[in-house]
Amino acid sequence: MSRPTVRAAVLYPDQAVTVTEVVLDPPGPGEVEVEIVAAGVCRSDLHAIEGHWPVPLPAVLGHEGAGIVTSLGAGVAGLEVGDHVVLSWVPVCGSCRHCAAQRPWLCEPADELIFAQGVLYDGTSRWHKGDDRLHHFFGVSAFAERVVVPASGAIPIRRDAPLDVVAIVGCAVATGVGAVLNTAQVPAGAELAVIGCGGVGLSCIQGARIAGAARIVAVDVNPAKLAIAKALGAHDTVDVSQTDTATALRDLQPAGFDYVIDAIGHVETTEQAIAAIGMGGAAVIVGAPRAGETARFDPLALVDAGQRILGSNYGSTDPRRDFPRLVDRYMAGELDLDTLISGSRPLTEINEALKELADGHALRTLLIP
Ligand code: APR
Ligand code: ZN
Ligand code: ZN
């Protein structure tokens, strides 16, 4: 019997991304197969392509998507065929010390196997091309017609939510809103700045609006992104294409901010974020830099002013708890996802979508298999 094939976008070690037919094995114990309805293109996909992170290759790319469960492996509880799901790129083990301590976004086996080795929990991959094994990417590999993921990475949501919108909850929105509501726990009345207004930064701005922040300042080098930031709740915008961010933020608010979020993750934006916080403030580092980079800050100022630097991995998200809530907020009109989606393309146009993101012309583009 011939093995089932699906169309998928494979990232090869030479950085080429190619849409091709690949073999997808059926789900093993504790795994589910999901038919992808839509998948978002994220800056982290570009990081992988550009070799900024050690990612096992070749791999089926993509880590933000939503779809419908099509089959269940042995022993899967809590999911049914036909369930609508948003995929999570931390498919938690549920039993390591971080999972036990209610910090599932730090799940150790997810980090060691799913991330570092590009395999599922049994140490193998469901993806093949001819005799070659392909890797999973972030345990999701959403740029495909169908995927097999750990059951814990398929988060059921209400069926009246449009999957080709809520797909972006799985990375940009969980990461950005979560950085504000979970990692920083920004209280009402806080004064805050967000550096970078891509899909992640705009989600931070929306999290700040939901939290009731008294002042939200959006920082970007692209006026079009700043206009969107304003529409999504920023009170002030700063175009730093010609000026230094830390200076511009000091000019705007000499006492510094309660929270400054780095939603880009360049060394300089991280340093700017730390430099712009006020007494008792916190810098929240959400954007991910290249592996191995280091940033500098003034430790005495940090001690004197009682400041904090918070790393926010996946917005400190508990997917089972937070994804359905984020979808509910969207359906209730409290969270704007439509504005974050700049368009959709067929999966075959993945390279055009990646280029648009790299060039700064797109927010989230959804790929439709
Ligand atoms: N200062 C201010 N804004 C900048 C600068 C800069 N030096 N450089 C780039 N930007 C802006 C871009 O104009 C763009 O609007 O930062 C934004 C980045 O957005 P995206 O490329 O859409 O990235 P996004 O998907 O939001 O991800 C941001 O979070 O998850 C991580 O890996 C991801 O590190 C990435 C970050
Ligand atoms: Zn992402
Ligand atoms: Zn765990």
TrEMBL record:
GO terms for molecular function: S-(hydroxymethyl)glutathione dehydrogenase [NAD(P)+] activity; zinc ion binding. One of its GO terms (cellular component) is cytosol. It comes from Actinoallomurus bryophytorum. PROSITE patterns: ADH_ZINC. Pfam families: ADH_N, ADH_zinc_N. InterPro entries: ADH-like_C, ADH-like_N, ADH_Zn_CS, ER, GroES-like_sf, NAD(P)-bd_dom_sf. Residues 14-368 form the Enoyl reductase (ER) domain. GO terms for biological process: formaldehyde catabolic process. Belongs to the zinc-containing alcohol dehydrogenase family. This is S-(Hydroxymethyl)glutathione dehydrogenase/alcohol dehydrogenase.
